[in-house]
């Protein structure tokens, strides 16, 4: 069973909630988070904003196609990303936006693609306002959650704080059209993968689809109501915590029903060392993330 965590209790470090958090982070790699500062009506607005964009015609979306850039901001067409080299490219469409460095930041001069400027569709000011506003709300929930995770694994609450001051956090809208007629056994909405970063805060429209690989190798559906979040953990946090936190494999095969999900991939500052704590090694978060982006987005793999 995936633990269900009441965020208000978590903030108070309620002992049973902390036990559940630890089980979710260490054993299963998934949690359900509810009672957060973001309510169900807000999630509905965000999903509706993405739905409005994804239902526009192809030419409209082409104007913000990330394939014409050297980064991953804007629209990614169906087939633009291949998260599992053993499967075909995913049939989902995406819309990605990320963290923009404040003016004058020392990292600006490095022109790092992980901080590339966002692209926004023309004539959709409400889309931009909704998504930008949600981006900041989602960051706050992730920050609060990560403080509790630090406590749960025996570090100071503030251990991660300064490592996420300029987070390479990526907010994505995933659009899964109804599973296409041509789809075969190697075709997925998103094929089996682990997330690349630290914490993923996932909102969905309530349509089922996400499956998690269990310890015995079987796939189990994860469902949640709109308004509660699915949390999972990525490769960087697994490495960084010497494997205490688990990055669990998951996928979406897709069904006859269209589906939208909205993950916030909460990744640290570019120059954070995410090598195993105490190992004396160095693994730059920004390098790991760029490598994983370059492996999976087809326009970055074959520029
Ligand atoms: O759509 C979902 O439920 C999961 C999406 C996902 O795993 C991802 O975007 O990394
Ligand atoms: Fe994922």
From TrEMBL:
Keyword vocabulary terms for this entry: Ethylene biosynthesis, Iron, Metal-binding, Oxidoreductase
Catalytic reactions on record: L-arginine + 2-oxoglutarate + O2 = guanidine + L-glutamate 5-semialdehyde + succinate + CO2; 2-oxoglutarate + O2 + 2 H(+) = ethene + 3 CO2 + H2O
Enzyme class: oxidoreductase
Necessary cofactors: Fe(2+)
E.C. no: 1.13.12.19, 1.14.20.7
Single GO MF descriptor: metal ion binding
InterPro entries from the UniProt entry: DIOX_N, IPNS-like_FE2OG_OXY, IPNS-like_sf, Iron_ascorbate_oxido_reductase, Oxoglu/Fe-dep_dioxygenase_dom
Key word Oxidoreductase present: yes
BP terms from Gene Ontology: ethylene biosynthetic process
Associated pathway: Alkene biosynthesis; ethylene biosynthesis via 2-oxoglutarate
Matches recorded under Pfam families: 2OG-FeII_Oxy, DIOX_N
Domain spans labelled Fe2OG dioxygenase: 166-268
Protein family per UniProt: Belongs to the iron/ascorbate-dependent oxidoreductase family.
Name by which UniProt lists this protein: 2-oxoglutarate-dependent ethylene/succinate-forming enzyme
Protein species of origin: Litorivita pollutaquae
